[in-house]
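ok posting inputs for the magnesium ion job
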Amino acid sequence: MESANSTASTPETAATSNFIRTIVEEDLKNGKHKTVVTRFPPEPNGYLHIGHAKSICLNFGLARDFGGRCHLRFDDTNPAKEEVEYAEAIKDNVRWLGFDWGEHLHYASDYFEQLYQWAEQLIRQGDAYVEDLSAEEIRAYRGTLTEPGKESPCRSRTSEDNLALFRRMRAGEFADGAKVLRAKIDMASPNLNLRDPVMYRILHAPHPHAGDKWCIYPMYDFAHGQSDSIEGITHSICTLEFADHRPLYKWFLERLGIYQPHQYEFARLNLTYTVMSKRKLLQLVQDGDVSGWDDPRMPTLSGLRKRGYTPESVRNFCEQIGVGKSDSWIDMSILEEAVRNDLNVRAPRAMAVLRPLKVVIDNYPEGLTEEFEAANHPNDPAMGTRKVPFAREVYIERDDFLEEPPKGFFRLSPGREVRLRYAYIVKCESVVKDAAGNIVEVRCSYDPASRGGSAPDGRKIKGTIHWVSARHAVKAEVRLYDRLFTVPNPDKGGQDFKAFINQDSLRIVEDACLEPALAKAASGSSYQFERQGYFHVGSTSADGTPVFNRTATLRDSWGSGGKKE
Ligand code: ATP
Ligand code: MG
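and the output
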């Protein structure tokens, strides 16, 4: 059986424009820049999520479409929260999405010596000073949006004293938190970022990339702009919350007299029915609410991948939502529809019964097996066909039988006929129940003249259901994943998002019945289980049978108000 390949792929050229794309186009046309250089600058303090994918597609997409380059740069200034595992996962995710940074894998921590020299330069110029106040006092001195801040007594230290103290900070003479280096800007600035922000802090801790060379570390704001400058970034693209930091980056670059990349801000992706802050995602992992960063319910790229999302579906989603300048919310159904649209084209079809009900066809010869040829894709003959075995006992979906059918129910019920997909028309003759009155078996007859599924006399059969031969069925585990939260905005207004975890977000079906061809489904492949949804082989069980993760149902079952399967 063919399988959907969800690994390597080359991104298609993006078609739709956006305001940043227009700026790049202009800058290249009028010669402001010869080539476009962008970067994606994650902090390796967690796994990438779907919001990061928006930024990746934007930055790498511009480089791809305008023949420039995009760097992957780790803004790794906080060793307390960063780990090599995260950096490795980030590289893996970016590659999975289909992007390539070539030679340009960079680390802000590789610039630590340069940043240190620049800090000394600012001290010599009288633009920075060593602060003795505690973090608490610094906060108290900062003032508020309506009140100006208060200048620290340390602000009047001489350059010589500051330089000597800063060198002693580097030499490890002071304890964590005992001193910081601050920029001397303006304690009355309406922009709080300019009220003498901290540039360096003392932290006696090794760094995952730089090793144990340092016991002082630059703040993100003192590293980010200069890193862009060092790398010759032409369009420094970030999310809106950094607009207020732009004047600070500019101030540093101006005082240092180095190249100033232009910064452009776009609206971050907000997605309903999930949370996206790395801090909250880490909390879910640490509290065991999910199995890890790559749990298929997580909005992380590793999670989406394990769920069965393809890189194409994620890229198409990012393309579709566009890039704007004001914050907005995207409904989760848009993301789900993106993966449906992609898998609809690439996933072979198969039959699987998740809640089996046995059907015995009394007039079908015992011991006989017939094989029916089934198309792997209704619209793509190139995907080939497979043989599906049929015998006297088959499983159908429990939901496809009702003893007392309501009006409009066209599946199986007493005295009624239904088509078993690819096979025969069967009629329900009787029902077998256990002592408690539960239906345990349905007895049917079949019409031998309806081989292939059509009635020779032309009688109309409204319903077609899927089935799996009982004797040939492969028992497998199927994990039915659903949205992780029950409400659209679980972290609205700072409320406790964990109160809204969907307790039904994972239901495990231990012994689903699969058609035999699925026994060999390769890890990483995706299928459409007819009438049910898209399923992805996320792992294999001890005996080698695939374990399927449900990627998405066939239709949006949330939009209509009620949640179904
Ligand atoms: P989080 O808030 O989840 O911790 P972050 O912004 O701290 O994320 P970074 O590692 O700093 O995470 O992000 C790397 C890049 O991805 C930044 O340029 C950031 O602007 C961008 N980014 C982060 N979240 C989103 C989002 N939801 N939508 C678009 N871009 C995002
Ligand atoms: Mg950030």
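notes: The domain at 113-218 is CATH 3.90.800.10 (Glutamyl-tRNA Synthetase; domain 3). The radius of gyration is 30 Å.
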